[in-house]
């Protein structure tokens, strides 16, 4: 191993397992400098009068970073935790610890790639290379049966060919030992106040008490597969609305990278071998493929996903009083119990089921005729599991300006409530307490 120092820049990959940048850095360098930076741009107000990161997700992020720091310490290392702009801080850290190269996982959405471009430029001036890795999806983009620009805009077409011809690489092993500079500065985590984030108390009716970090994410994976066999019935239960177990609840850990999607895939494969495969075990992989898909779509269509016309460039109809209607939707005051119950759950817990999300999004766009990007920005603030591709990709889909091949799909909210909440238990839970 050469006398080399590599800076490992953690972003949305807050884990030790299946983490190529961490493993390769420990293999290629004698010393590594693991860094996480709380960037103030992620905690500011947006043009939509929302916050980029609300209190629930900020808390989850703090817990995830704390867990990562602890795990790195257990391996003999540590994590530098800083607050500021990465393009200013990373070159400074490089100077201080004589860093030769910086590693990070490439992101897909424009704000994230703008930041890494700025870091790359700043490092370039110091003749230090920023090496990009791919590490957020099950499928590595190079193992897909098409280049990104040719990925079909219809999911089913993408899925069929990918399932037939794509391969999923094995997960990376975890490093056994981390060596950091002897004089590595001791740092502590900021508080919610330092980040400018609010304290949100989670309502006791929450579907699940999310706690950030790889340790909790891996524990949830073990629970859902091995301890309870819930995976075996996932396809039947996944459209549920109440409680921790109707779906995997992996999303928040996947979004922060506390769980690797590829690790989840291989664990499901192991489960299938040991306890049997069925349509439920397949269906969780199917849903994870949606997650991959939206990420690849972001790579293909770029910022168009943030525009109201989407990549279809469609005109949308707006109600004259859309501002007023939007306020009612946000505040769970539409008068439609199924919508209000879901919005209340989101506001008080930072989570909403997939069924709920489909309905409230469709209702905002198709019934209230409000600009869908406002709803997406509101979800961005509130959701614990927010990530740009899954959120904006799904919103564009529901709004009919993204990947939905069917024209004018419109949820009948009353029918949805009857089908998925036949006894009204979910509505009662959130509206009568
Ligand atoms: C309007 C709207 C906005 C959404 N915003 C987000 C978001 O910001 N972050 C996010 O992770 N998911 C988002 N989703 C997708 C989905 O609702 C959540 O991933 C899911 O409800 C999380 O619960 P779970 O982990 O128990 O899901 P499960 O049903 O157990 O699914 C397993 C995993 O598959 C992935 N997945 C499932 N459905 C989808 C989907 N439609 N699109 C992409 N990935 C999917 C997730 O990673 C999920 O954790 C959104 C859906 C809609 C309709």
UniProtKB/TrEMBL annotation:
Its cofactor is FAD; (6R)-5,10-methylene-5,6,7,8-tetrahydrofolate. Binds 1 FAD per subunit. SUPFAM superfamilies: Cryptochrome/photolyase FAD-binding domain (SSF48173), Cryptochrome/photolyase, N-terminal domain (SSF52425). Residues 4-138 form the Photolyase/cryptochrome alpha/beta domain. Keywords: Chromophore, FAD, Flavoprotein. InterPro entries: Cry_DASH, Crypto/Photolyase_FAD-like_sf, Crypto/Photolyase_N_sf, Cryptochr/Photolyase_FAD-bd, Cryptochrome/DNA_photolyase_1, DNA_photolyase_N, Rossmann-like_a/b/a_fold. May have a photoreceptor function. NCBIfam families: crypto_DASH. Belongs to the DNA photolyase class-1 family. This is Cryptochrome DASH. It comes from Pedobacter segetis.
């Amino acid at each position: 191993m050469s006398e080399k120092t590599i800076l490992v820049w953690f972003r949305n990959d807050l884990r030790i397992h299946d983490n190529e940048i961490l493993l390769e850095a420990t293999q290629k360098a004698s010393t590594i400098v693991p860094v996480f930076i709380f960037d103030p741009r992620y905690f500011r107000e947006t043009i939509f009068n929302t916050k980029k990161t609300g209190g629930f997700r900020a808390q989850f992020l703090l817990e995830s970073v704390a867990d990562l720091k602890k795990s790195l310490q257990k391996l003999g290392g540590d994590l530098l935790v800083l607050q500021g702009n990465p393009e200013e801080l990373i070159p400074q850290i490089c100077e201080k610890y004589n860093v030769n190269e910086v590693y990070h996982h490439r992101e897909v959405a424009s704000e994230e790639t703008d930041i890494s471009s700025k870091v790359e430029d700043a490092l370039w001036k110091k003749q230090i290379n920023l090496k990009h890795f791919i590490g957020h999806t099950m499928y590595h983009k190079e193992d897909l049966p098409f280049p990104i620009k040719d990925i079909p805009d219809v999911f089913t077409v993408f899925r069929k060919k990918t399932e037939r011809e794509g391969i999923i690489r094995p997960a990376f092993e975890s490093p056994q030992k981390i060596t950091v500079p002897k004089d590595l500065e001791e740092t502590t985590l900021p508080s919610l106040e330092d980040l400018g984030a609010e304290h949100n108390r989670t309502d006791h009716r929450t579907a699940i008490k999310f706690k950030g970090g790889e340790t909790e994410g891996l524990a949830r994976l073990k629970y859902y597969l091995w301890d309870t066999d819930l995976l075996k019935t996932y396809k039947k239960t996944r459209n549920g609305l109440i409680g921790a177990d109707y779906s995997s609840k992996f999303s928040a850990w996947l979004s922060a990278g506390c769980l690797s999607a590829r690790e989840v895939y291989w664990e499901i494969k192991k489960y299938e071998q040991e306890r049997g495969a069925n349509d439920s075990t397949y269906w969780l992989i199917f849903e994870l493929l949606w997650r991959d898909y939206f990420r690849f779509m972001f790579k293909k269509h770029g910022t168009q996903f943030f525009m109201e016309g989407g990549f279809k460039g469609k005109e949308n109809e707006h109600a004259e009083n859309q501002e007023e209607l939007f306020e009612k939707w946000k505040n769970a005051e539409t008068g439609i119990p199924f919508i209000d119950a879901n919005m209340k759950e989101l506001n008080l817990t930072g989570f909403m089921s997939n069924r709920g999300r489909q309905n409230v999004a469709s209702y905002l766009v198709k019934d209230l005729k409000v600009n869908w990007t406002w709803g997406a920005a509101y979800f961005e603030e509130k959701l614990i599991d927010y990530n740009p591709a899954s959120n904006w990709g799904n919103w564009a889909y529901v709004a009919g300006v993204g990947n939905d091949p069917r024209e004018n799909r419109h949820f009948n909210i009353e029918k949805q409530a009857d089908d998925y909440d036949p006894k009204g238990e979910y509505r009662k839970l959130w509206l009568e307490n």
